[in-house]
Amino acid sequence: MIRRPSERFGPAVAVLVVALLLVTVVGTWPPLVAVQSGSMEPAVERGDLVVVTAVDRFPWDDPVGSDAANPPTRLDRPGDVVVFTSPADPRRPILHRVAFRVTAGEDWTDRADPALLDGADCAEIATCPAPYDGYVTYGDANGEYDQSAGIAPVVHERLVHAKALFSVPYLGYFQLAVDAAVARFGVVPAGVGILAAVSLVSGTGAFLVGRARDGRRTRTESDDGRRPPR
Questions:
Q1: Where are the annotated coiled coils located (predicted)?
Q2: What is the pTM for the complete model shown?
Q3: Which of 84, 86, 171, 219 could form a disulfide with 49 if both were Cys (CB 3.0 to 4.6 A apart)?
């Protein structure tokens, strides 16, 4: 049996259409972020897939910290969770929670939770006083602010790419595998391999569905042939 192109590539096309619709709705690329570490456990674990949206996408506004009077609940805790780039390692975006917003020149340790400073004061923190307007952030599982731990300086608003909305367990492992393939083989070879794999899976699925449909049709015709005349 010869499979039509629509049967062979239909699932892959459907996935592409869903991805394009998701980008249109959330207004950012990529619309999905795979979690690479356990810094946001237990709400988000390594291998989870997080759906994100542009910061300025309606009805969202600037990130709201967990210290706000009525903060939004993101990923099971108060305060927005954002994706931002750290100048310390621009190749690896960070998904962490906003603690509070700071202004240029502010000694932000006055408003900080002492338990998340690990005994440090402003003089011991490279980005205190705040060199510019921005955000103090932390990972739920880290037990310390990114800024006092040296993970990232005060996060400038230009470095905030998206807000996290919710997560889906385990689905991020596929993206992590893709990232590893790109890092090892390059974009073009990895892309060709991924497309080939998707086509193979789509074609195999279409073939199995077709076989099952043909089997049901054959059984139905056989049953019709055995029916006694009225």
A1: none
A2: 0.69
A3: 171
Asked if residue 229 is part of any domain, the answer here is no
**3-state secondary structure labels for all residues of the chain:** CCCCHHHHHHHHHHHHHHHHHHHHHHCCCCCEEECCCCCCCCCCCCCCEEEEECCCCCCCCCCCCCCCCCCCEECCEECCEEEECCCCCCCCCEEEEEEEEECCCCCHHHCCCHHHCCCCCHHHCCCCCCCCCEEEEECCCCCCEHHHHCCCCCECHHHEEEEEEEEECCCHHHHHHHHHHHHHHCHHHHHHHHHHHHHHHHHHHHHHHHHHHHHHHHHHHHHHHHCCCC
The verdict on 200 and 155 lying in the same domain is: no
Range of the domain at 82: 33-167
- Which pLDDT value is given to residue 221? 56
Q: Could you tell me if 62 and 156 lie in one domain?
A: yes
- Residue 230 lies inside a defined structural domain of this protein: no
- Statement to judge: residues 22 and 37 lie in one domain: no
